[in-house]
Write a structure and sequence with these properties.
Layout: H1 5-15, E1 19-23, H2 38-48, E2 53-57, E3 63-64, E4 67-68, E5 82-85, H3 92-102, E6 106-109, H4 120-134, E7 139-141, E8 147-149, E9 165-172, H5 175-187, E10 192-197, H6 206-213, E11 221-225, H7 232-236
Helix pairs in contact: 1-6, 3-4
Length: 237
């Protein structure tokens, strides 16, 4: 199988980001919505000791969790290696347009409310996301997923787990299965190189990440939890 050098270079930035933005970070925990929020992700990264630059995005705040906040992706003062989106689904297309405008290639859509709902509005939003991604270079992970968990980069996406680095990579369509696997690994004596929860797999699925991991010097074992795959022949290759 021919390796795409642009894919490898883009994923290298996603797995080892020096500048990371989180879109939709509330100022406090009062009446938080269910599931993962931008503020929760920001605090997980801070607690893990993430060494890159963190950019919370909130047009109504100037500082969140002792970090300067910015009104939009377009206002961030440096190139972004990874953008995590946690706002309601209806606002995601505009953020993707902003990402494309500033050259922020790697995008993790944590937000739910797309095709997985089975509702016409969710399906229409997912089609819009696909349309934007198809005409740009965006490497979209998700929607409806927990994205990248990378111990070597101090990127933690799960609560109450040890960030133990090791040779095992895990790709999962289920965020819950990924969290259980990450939690159990250290108790059984093994750590992780990269873990990716990729949810709806709208634009990227296991085959894209396998292409990267097959040549990754930090990875010796690759584990998969699949609920489906778009391109069976590519997976076999």
């Amino acid at each position: 199988m021919t390796t795409d050098p642009d894919l490898i270079a883009d994923l290298q930035r996603a797995f080892h980001p020096k500048a990371l933005a989180i879109v939709g970070v509330s100022r406090d925990d009062v009446n938080p919505p269910p599931g993962y929020t931008g503020l929760k992700i920001l605090r997980l990264l801070q607690g893990a000791g993430f060494e890159g630059h963190l950019y919370p995005i909130n047009p109504k705040a100037t500082s969140i969790a002792a970090v300067r906040a910015y009104p939009s992706i377009r206002a961030v003062p440096e190139p972004l290696d990874l953008v995590i989106i946690t706002i309601p689904a209806r606002g995601v297309p505009q953020v993707l347009e902003d990402c494309a405008a500033v050259g922020a290639v790697n995008v993790h859509i944590c937000s739910a409310g797309f095709g997985e709902t089975g509702e016409p509005e969710g399906k229409a939003l997912q089609d819009r996301v696909r349309e934007i991604a198809s005409k740009t270079r965006l490497r979209i992970v998700g929607p409806n997923c927990l994205g990248y968990h990378v111990p070597a980069s101090r990127m933690n996406m799960y609560q109450e787990v040890r960030l133990l680095q090791g040779p095992v990579a895990f790709l999962s369509q289920s965020g819950g299965h990924a969290q259980d696997y990450v939690g159990y690994g250290p108790t059984l004596g093994f750590g992780f190189s990269k873990v990716v929860s990729y949810g709806n797999a709208l634009m990227m699925d296991c085959t894209d990440f396998l292409e990267y991991l097959a040549a990754d010097p930090e990875t010796r074992i690759i584990c998969l939890y699949l609920e489906g795959v778009r391109n069976g022949p590519r997976l076999r290759r």
